[in-house]
Design a protein that fits this description.
Alkaline Phosphatase, subunit A, alpha/beta, disordered N terminus, signal, globular, 12% strand, ten-stranded mixed beta sheet, three-stranded antiparallel beta sheet, TAT_signal, DUF1501, 483 residues, DUF1501 domain-containing protein
């Protein structure tokens, strides 16, 4: 009997281990590595209960989105500079020509309320939904934003008088720095996760983590106490191999094993994680079974739309989940358009624009458009000039924010050396390097902390999670795009 029990236990442990990665709400090794983090004990004020609901939805554009083609100046002088720096206008008949500038006749006009005298703008023709959201007041652009440790100009960059984020122009490093909340060395926690560590107390009674990922494990949502729960665009992810009558028997046996007491911390943590995976799946499945039918039409064959549609469904059952604050994550790419950018970029931008447009309509249908703010991140923009077939890694770029609480129809950032929020795009001019690598006017931490403050994070915790943000207090680090 002892031998049989031991064999059965080994078998079930191996079976559970094989399916844990897909079903668990957190990575075991990540959790273990964070146990001694200093942020676990904070002296900031606690958070009183709230009665309202708020959610942040992060869409990370992997690979470095060429956002200088997303928002384009269309007044004559600045458009001509843009065309020259982008190596000419795209020729649709010759997709492999070197020109990367969008023809002005194709750009979708947007009415930027704070554009400045004589300045006008257009949005990429593949983004009619983003243009419509902006013009309706539900969208805004953060312009010329990138990783920074302190305000930096071309002069201080060149003479080395300011510290710079490490490994500029590197995908992995810059992706991490946008997600960590502190653009220095690589870390194991992200600002979404650390924010959830502090705000999860607002979800009193909730049995699902505050952070929910539609793109698996990610650094943005990695916290100390709160780890992301992963679901897919099709719904909660079940343990693999536990279907049918045999599966039910196996699951019952697994749950019996998980209920045992284990002497070592690794086994106890493992059992806890598997238990959580089962509990999260059951809770989410039960809640979604009661979700209202969404009439909003989401575009087909669109992975971003699938993910955002599932987020809308989860938001619709926030009451059943007892959630007052939630953080969602979706990633999509690759935007690493070194090659065939003329053909590839319109498809990428169309995918995200149509998905975001449908998602905003869904929040209106659910009556939560003022409670849900969606935003893009991307590790960097691209060089303004062409490499002959595409563009290469650069630095600062533009981001899009949408929701009913966004102060829409405006652009936000900090003035560039040339004077305006939107920088001078002259190659090797006052605001960029030789190939059009734009030097950030505003830090990605300012952008992120502005969003975190709207969700409810207090300034004490903001200073802890974003330790460099107060380097940009001139007059305030808050970029001001949230009401």
């Amino acid at each position: 009997m002892t031998s049989f029990s031991s064999s059965r236990r080994d078998f079930l442990r191996k079976a559970a281990c094989s399916s844990l990665a897909a079903a668990s709400g957190s990575a075991l090794l990540t959790q273990l590595s964070l146990m001694n983090s200093a942020l676990a004990a904070t002296s900031c004020a606690s958070y009183p209960p709230v009665s309202d609901y708020r959610a942040l939805v992060c869409l990370f554009l992997l690979g470095g989105n060429d956002s200088w083609n997303l928002l384009v100046p269309t007044d004559t002088a600045r458009y001509n500079t843009y065309v020259t720096s982008r190596s000419g206008i795209i020729n649709p008949a010759m997709p492999n020509n070197s020109g990367m500038a969008v023809d002005s006749s194709q750009l979708l006009p947007v009415n930027v309320l704070n554009a400045g005298s004589g300045h006008t703008y257009g949005v990429h023709p593949s983004c009619p939904e983003l243009a419509s959201l902006f013009n309706s007041g539900a969208g805004a652009f953060g312009v010329n934003i990138g990783t920074l440790l302190q305000p930096t100009t071309k002069t201080t960059y060149g003479n080395g008088s300011v510290p710079l984020p490490p490994q500029l122009f590197s995908h992995a490093d810059q992706q991490g720095q946008w997600q960590y909340g502190q653009p220095t060395a690589n870390g194991s926690t992200g600002w979404g996760g650390l924010m959830s560590d502090r705000l999860y107390v607002l979800n009193a009674g909730a049995t699902i983590p505050m952070s929910i990922s539609l793109s698996g494990q990610n650094r943005f949502q990695a916290g100390i106490n709160v780890q992301p729960y992963s679901i897919s665009g099709a719904g909660p992810i079940a343990l693999g191999g536990y279907t049918g009558s045999a599966g039910t028997a196996k699951l019952n046996a697994l749950e019996e094993l998980l209920a045992l007491s284990y002497p070592d911390p690794l086994s106890r943590t493992y059992a806890s994680k598997v238990n959580n995976a089962i509990g999260y799946y059951n809770t989410m499945s039960s809640a979604l079974a009661g979700a209202p039918t969404l009439n909003t039409v989401f575009p087909a064959n669109n992975p971003v739309a699938d993910a955002l549609k599932m987020i809308a469904k989860v938001i619709s059952v926030r009451g059943a989940l007892q959630a007052k604050r939630q953080v969602f994550f979706v990633s999509y790419g690759s935007f690493d358009t070194h090659d065939t950018q003329v053909v590839g970029q319109p498809k990428l931008l169309s995918t995200i624009s149509s998905a975001l447009g449908a998602f905003y309509n869904a929040t209106v249908e659910l009556g939560v458009q003022n409670s849900v703010t969606s935003f893009t991140l991307s590790e960097f923009a691209r060089t303004l000039n062409s490499n002959g077939d595409g563009t290469d890694h650069a630095w600062a770029g533009n981001q899009f924010v949408m929701g009913g609480s966004v102060k829409g129809q405006n652009i936000y950032g900090r003035p560039a050396v040339s004077g305006g929020l939107f920088p001078d795009q002259t190659l090797n001019g006052p605001d960029c390097l030789a190939r059009g690598q734009m030097i950030p006017g505003a830090s990605c931490d300012q952008y992120s902390a502005t969003l975190a403050r709207w969700l409810g994070l207090n300034d004490c915790d903001i200073a802890t999670i974003f330790p460099y943000v107060n380097n940009f207090n001139s007059p305030t680090w808050d970029l001001g795009f949230m009401s």
